[in-house]
Amino acid sequence: MALLSRIRNLASNLLHRNRVERELDDEMRAHLAMLVDEKIATGLSPEQARRSALIEFGGVDQVKEQVRDVRMGARLEQVWLDVRYAARILRKNPGFTAIVVITLALGIGVNTAIFSLVDGILLRPLPYDQPDRLVRLVQSQRQIGLESWNLSQATFTSLRDNTHSLEALAAYSTSGANLTGDGDPERVSIGTVSADFFKVLGIAPVLGRAFRAGEDTPGNNGVCVISFGFWQRRFAGDPNIIGNSLNLSSTPIEVVGVMPAGFSFPRPETEIWIPLAINPARTAPYFLKAIARLAPGVSPSEAETETTGVLWNYARQHPDTSENRVPLDQGSALKTIVTPLKEVMVGSTQKPLLILLCAVGLVLLIACANVANLLLARATSRVREIAVRFALGATPSRVARQLLTESLVLALIGGAGGVMLAWLGVRMLGRMPTDGIPRIEAVTVDGRVLAFTAGLAVLTGLLFGLMPALRAYRMGMIAAMHEGGRGGTASRRSNSALVAAQFALSFVLLIGAGLLLKSFQRLQSVELGFNPEKLLTMVVSLPARKYSKPEQSIQFCENLIDRLRTLPGVRAAGLTTNIPFVGDDNTDNFIVEGRDPGGEGVQVQLLAMTPGHLQAMGIPLLRGRDFLETDKSDSQQVAIVDETLARMYWPDGDALGKRVETTGDMQWMTIVGVVGGIKQDGFAEKLQPHIYAPLAQSPTLVAKLVVRTDGASNPTIAAIGSAVSGLDPDIPVYSIRSMNDVMARTLNSQRLTNLLLTSFSVLALVLAAVGIYGTMSLYVGSRKNEFGIRLALGAQPRVLLRLVLREGMLLIAAGIGIGVGGALALTRAMASLLFEVSPTDPVVFTGVPLLLVFVALAACFVPARRASRVDPMVALRCE
Questions:
Q1: DSSP 8-state class, residue 635
Q2: Do 593 and 496 fall into the same domain?
Q3: Which of 176-190, 287-301, 696-710 has the largest mean confidence?
Q4: Overall pTM surpassing 0.85 (yes/no)
Q5: Could you read off the pLDDT of 76-85 as tens digits, one per residue?
Q6: Share of the chain residues as helix, strand and coil, in percent rounded to the nearest 5
Q7: Is residue 120 part of a domain?
Q8: What is the tally of structural domains in the chain?
């Protein structure tokens, strides 16, 4: 024990590893030889004595283990000493430490925030069982202009019963229902699903049961499953809810289950699921969407091949269905498209998020270059300190390790600050309009994000600390003294290279932000075809059981319009079946009288509206007349077409009096008016042809109200609600939004991308400006004596001012030259995100360099002015 204690004390005090090993080996050999001699003295042979000593010594492995423990303890103690020394040095320089920590916190914080977005939206698996096997299934028939369309009940049944590549297939559609009974009537979002819907997703209710086989057939679908949030909100989490009935659109529905918290598929607002009433013989309409779970080992392409074959067999057996609009021997005329469900849900956000991730990566590189600049400048001021440490026996690796430890300590502190900034950023994101951004509710700063931040902080510390550490490693005592004597020329070269790289990265980011901002500006200035200002939109849904006859719904709509037009603050009002920008399209083929089925390959938007709807929307009537109160179901069938359709078929403008027929209605309608075209689905879409029919000739149970007001919207909304309640107290008014809000929702994703990328670009520019300011300050400081001599010899201050500014402009020119290549690569990648803007837009590619030059001149001016005001006597005395 005394020997082991001696070994432990000896090892803890040794300075070099080779010496530790040599001393310990001598001690162990001496101890072993002493034991062997004792064994020989007892009469054993030398070999027997050696074996016995080894057994008794035991020993050797235990001693080696103790030595390893001692060495590990020594290393940990040394690391702790390095950390304490780094903390002490940083405390002595609070200004330098604060600048570095803030810079790193900004760089790491924005990276952490964007990673939380990427992680929550793109990387995390869907919250379902084995989500990689979930797919969406649609059919396609490009020859008739249908890139993708849904299934009928007949085609869904055929696919469900005749495919082996799909373990389970489920259909669903979305709608709404009026909930009446206890409390005020309200509109709830409904998911109408087949019995296997929850089985496909692998989600079971937390209370009660899911749908049983056969409950999705006509007459057996009087049950429902409710969401956890709806259960808590409407029934305060009553555990006895199972077996109770809900009154949905005047129909009692029994509650059989409650889904887990957070489950809301297919729409975030879905609160109730009811079974479909599937009729395998029903070949129209095509309103069912389908999701499936692939069989084990089956790929989406294999499932696509099999389901396409099933669809073709169905079309051959039912030649009168829409699947046979073109001959089946035309290759890809009819097919299914099987796509992973996650790709369907987040595909539109993938490219913008990846661009943002690359952008914040560039910001972090700029921050690292900035910090490396600061550390190099600081290392220059510490050259004599480093030289003294070399003179006292420190090795280059020991000094490099200490400098690297300081960098890691700074990075970890900056990482902690970055986590706080990311957390604040995610909270701010929750307060922003994020409708339309998929899976945004999954974005959070959790353990995965913290692990990413920790790794990023360490990597960042290594990245910006490597250059000063390598310089210290390569520098001996004489080299250190020489470096200090010549004013840090090598440091200036390193700093200049880093500044050029900073401005190259800033150039790339600013080009990307400039293109997106210009694209967004173009998008918002698009001519919509209607006037969204002071326009309110809302929805009224009539229960089918109560308004089973068409004349009942027509009468309700006419009475409601009459009441609305008399309300104070209402300038115009109308009812329609479709509101722009809300995604409730109704498209179909059509036929023009006297032509071959000219509608083939062209889809038209079908809308019904009341007289006055055009005035309320601000859609101009170009020729003919608006609908009249006399356009009833028993009068001549009439229609209004838009200018887009009129130009396609009557380029001479002679559309009035012509007749068209939609394949869904199969009734000839006489065109009585031509109106301007409108954007139906989004700002960037091309104008689609529209056919409008009188609401009295095409009655609906779901009416969309558009009300043009004088600006006082809140009293108007209350008055509209009272008008509806006066006609039927069980009918709620819902989805009350201004048209500007409706349109803004479609731009949320682009707006968020633009805001973030612009913010990152400005941050990068500020960091680059700080970098060039620091480099030029170092440049002026290192040449202070030279400038003093020049001034003493008669040089004009403006000459020195130009000299320093020229040095800065050379760095900027180099940065812009390097950045052009990166900017061209970035713009090619983001070309699909631009609207009416070239990826090499000359205005952006001219304005960004000018902005960089202006910022660089501003950053260089203070050091340049300082150089021109050097006092020659003071400069020479300092030397």
A1: S
A2: no
A3: 287-301
A4: no
A5: 667 677 777 7
A6: 55, 15, 30
A7: no
A8: 4
